[in-house]
Amino acid sequence: MASAAAVKLPFTVPLQWKATGVLVKPISDANHTIVSVKDPTVVHYNGLWHIYATAYSTSAKTWTMVYLNFKDWSEAPQRQADLHRY
Fold first, then answer.
1. Do 75 and 63 contact (CB within 8 A), yes or no?
2. Which of 19, 31, 45, 83 has the fewest CB atoms within 10 Å distance of its CB?
3. In the β-sheet with 62-70, what is the strand arrangement from edge to edge?
4. What three-state secondary structure class fits 37?
5. Cα–Cα distances in angstroms (integers) from residue 36 to residues 14, 56, 58, 74, in the given order
């Protein structure tokens, strides 16, 4: 069994977090007043970032699933999520 000293980590220790501005924000459409986006799952696939998240619509009075994608994180705050009802 390898010793802990022999393990090479793919990141520097200790981890240091950096805060940024808003990455994904609620953007309403003509039929849904979206007031929050939470619990995102982020995947980078085929040159795009894909986000699946939970959103709350005050007009529908329910939580729903949303999806959005973009090439660069600078695009994320302006992207309107597609709503999926389950």
1. no
2. 19
3. 34-45, 48-57, 62-70, 82-84
4. strand
5. 32, 5, 9, 19
- pTM for the predicted model, two decimal places: 0.71
**Measuring CA to CA, how many Å separate 47 from each of 54, 65, 71, 76, 77?**
23, 23, 6, 14, 18
Q: How far apart are CA 47 and CA 82, in angstroms?
A: 19
**End-to-end Cα spacing for the chain:** 48
- Tell me the three state secondary structure of residue 4: helix
What is d(CA 81, CA 29) in angstroms, rounded to the nearest whole number? 9
Which sign does the torsion angle of CA 77, 18, 64, 36 carry? Answer: negative
- Count CB-CB contacts under 10 A for residue 50: 14
Q: How far apart are the C-alpha atoms of 65 and 10, rounded to whole Å?
A: 33
